[in-house]
Design brief:
globular; about 0% strand; about 110 residues
Length: about 110
């Protein structure tokens, strides 16, 4: 059985990083600089751009806009809490996903109390 956390680690986070890397390169940032900004290896950026990694999820418009906004902030050199912004995008993506504990019921309803 795959837990929701496994899906996030294996699919969601790489897809978010890939989308940010793609957006940075579209904005004229080099792969090496994108890697530095994202605090990942240049080889990871190369794999994201080639579709070998982080390709399993298509994002809706709101999530795409959040990713574009983060990439623009990074390119402008703004001080960005990358972990927090990535978590925000992940939460935005998972809204309404009951597997991740985001159902509309209260916590006690979800536990069956």
């Amino acid at each position: 059985m795959e837990s929701p956390c496994q899906r996030i680690v294996w699919d969601v986070l790489p897809a978010i990083r890939a989308a940010i890397a793609v957006e940075l390169v579209k904005c004229g940032v080099s792969q090496v600089e994108a890697a530095r900004m994202l605090e990942i290896a240049p080889s990871a950026v190369s794999q994201y751009l080639s579709g070998k990694r982080g390709y399993r999820i298509e994002f809706e418009n709101e999530v795409k806009r959040s990713i574009e906004h983060l990439a623009k902030d990074l390119k402008k050199g703004k001080q960005v809490n990358l972990v927090q912004r990535t978590c925000d995008i992940c939460r935005q993506l998972r809204e309404g996903d009951e597997q991740c504990g985001r159902s509309s019921g209260t916590a006690s309803e979800r536990r069956g109390s």
